[in-house]
Amino acid sequence: MAENTHGMAKSSTRALWKGAITFGLVHIPVGLYSATEETDVNFDWLDRRTMDPVGYKRINKRTGKEIAKEDVVKGVEHGKGNYVIVSPQEIAEAYPRTTQTIEIEAFVDVDDVPFVYLERPYYTAPINKGEKVYALLREALKETGKIGLGRVVIQTKQHLAIVLPCGPALVLNLLRWGGEVRTWEGLPLPKSGKAAGLKDAELKMAKELIASMSGQWDAAEFRDEFHDAIMKLVEAKAKAGDTETVDPLEEAPDTEGAEVIDLTELLRRSLGGGKGAAKPAARKSAAHAPAKERAAAAGKPARKAARKAATKPAAKPRAKRAA
Hints:
Elements lengths: L16 E7 L2 E9 L39 E4 L5 E4 L1 H7 L6 E9 L8 E9 L4 H14 L1 E9 L2 E10 L2 E7 L24 H13 L12 H15 L23 H10 L18 H21 L12
Parallel strand pairs: 1-5
Antiparallel strand pairs: 1-2, 2-6, 3-4, 5-7, 6-9, 7-8, 8-9
């Protein structure tokens, strides 16, 4: 019988990456696919006077002035008001090694992992003739009631994760780390069982009420009402011609003398392993050059301009235009 997908978002067939599920000597080649779709309404900021896009700026919170990108460093607070500055190179070295594998370290009962640790699901699908071993793991997990517990690196970040069967697929669900989920200790919670002071008659009526309200899960019945209301309003206004035209902005040309590579872009190119992989030594920016070199570089344009001015004939004064 076909699995019920009524009310679910359209599937994504673009693989985020291709790797493998591994445990013991078993190697299952798989592709990783997004299993969720965000339904938040994206409100863009516009200037109501001109309908120009409004962006974000790097503002010094003390002076209120905008600062240049190269003057921004990353710091981690260590004690009240004290920060440890971490360089891009130190951050890059701390990133976990990317292996493109979902390394299962143990199999645990499906009920052993509390739902509060679940963070984000992804679908996996077999590739490179891995269908049979993929199906073998899926069916074995279903029959034993077990799930695979392991680690995976996605976009340079290491995650704790579980692999579990869901319909015809094996789902990779990222977990929060142990220190990221708060304990319930100290909360004013009632005691369990008879100690809570519940009467048998009260518990019986509660069970009967639950039974009378029991039903089947249907994703189509549970939607983001705010999203639907806003999009319905947007469609109605657009149909009535109540829209504003926003002209696209022209990107300013890059006039910096030294090429400054963003760390995230550098890592993305390196992970791709393809053409144009940046070499840190060859991409050193002027901000990291020794002071003597920076001073020499800064003086060159001024000396060049002075020599050019000395050889250029004086311009004739222009007549002032009438006011």
